[in-house]
Amino acid sequence: MTTTAIPPEARNAPAAAPKRRPQREREGAAWVFLSPWVLGAIVLTLLPMAVSLYLSFTDYDLFSPPKWVGLRNYVQMFTEDPRYWRSVVTTLMYVLVAVPLQLALALVVALALKGMKRGKGFYRSAFYAPSLLGASMSIALVWRAVFNDGGTVDNLLGTGGWVNKPGWALLAVALLTAWQFGAPMVIFLAGLQQIPAELYEAAAVDGAGKWRQFLSVTVPMLSPVLFFNLVLQTIQAFQVFTPAFAVSAGKGGPADSTLVYTMYLYDRGFVASHMGYASAMAWVLLLVIGIVTAVLFRTSRSWVFYASEGDR
């Protein structure tokens, strides 16, 4: 039996590296996996947005072909529709009340949960539950019953039903939103657990009390999380619909005191069948949310502290 001698240079040669797939083949595989998301984004988001933008320049009643009217819907919205401006004011009032109240409750509960030794998981789940249930129509109807004439609030305070009073109805809607503080609470709790204990110890050595530690340590270190929650909850508050619809029985009353923007948009589009006008309202809302978000990001430079950046 003969054996073939292996040359020394071949014996010491490194193993051949595995062949890499061509760049185009790797990109093709990536697009295959991304195709469901891309298709969904085009069909379910970009295409409806394009159609809505076109309809905003038309007179369309859902039953006849749309008629091009140019900027008439926008001109009518800003100059000829006082109810539109009432919905704008109502929405702004709602945002200014509901968002700070919700974030304050979320932060207070998160601080309380952080200091708990036992049962933290149970209470965290219990406080988070309203965020899962509160957006449903059934819970909103229960909320209406609680604040209606003869309801729980009326029996306890003797003030009458809030939902039938123009000055109180919007507050009832804002309280329903504030009650759903579970999501920002969980985010606050995660942020609080990331703050080093050494900072509190150093502050205590310097003579800082609990309130001073909260202002000088907790708030600055938690400011990125606070900013995230503020942006997220503000965007959601501008789009509120279900609580106001249920509390006002779909009418925005009393005296349009709960007529938020999205409810009036729904009324124009699906009740009055002015879909072109409703599409114009939707695009104005998108623009306003974009501007408000940009302003929040711009102002965050002066109060949001990132530990990796050091002192500004």
From TrEMBL:
Membrane topology: Multi-pass membrane protein
Subcellular localization, as worded in the UniProt entry: Cell membrane
GO cellular component: plasma membrane
PANTHER family (UniProt xref): ABC TRANSPORTER PERMEASE PROTEIN (PTHR30193), ABC TRANSPORTER PERMEASE PROTEIN YESP-RELATED (PTHR30193:SF1)
Family: Belongs to the binding-protein-dependent transport system permease family.
Residues making up the signal peptide according to the UniProt record: none
UniProt-listed Gene3D superfamilies: MetI-like
Low complexity composition-biased segments: 7-17
Presence of keyword Transmembrane helix: yes
Taxon lineage: Bacteria, Bacillati, Actinomycetota, Actinomycetes, Kitasatosporales
Domain ABC transmembrane type-1: from-to ranges: 88-296
Top-level taxonomic group: Bacteria
Entry-linked CDD domains: TM_PBP2
Protein name per Swiss-Prot or TrEMBL: Multiple sugar transport system permease protein
Organism (species): Streptomyces collinus
Residue ranges, annotated region (Disordered): 1-22
Parts of the chain that traverse the membrane: 29-57, 92-113, 125-147, 167-192, 213-232, 275-297
Membrane listed as a keyword: yes
Any one Gene Ontology BP term: transmembrane transport
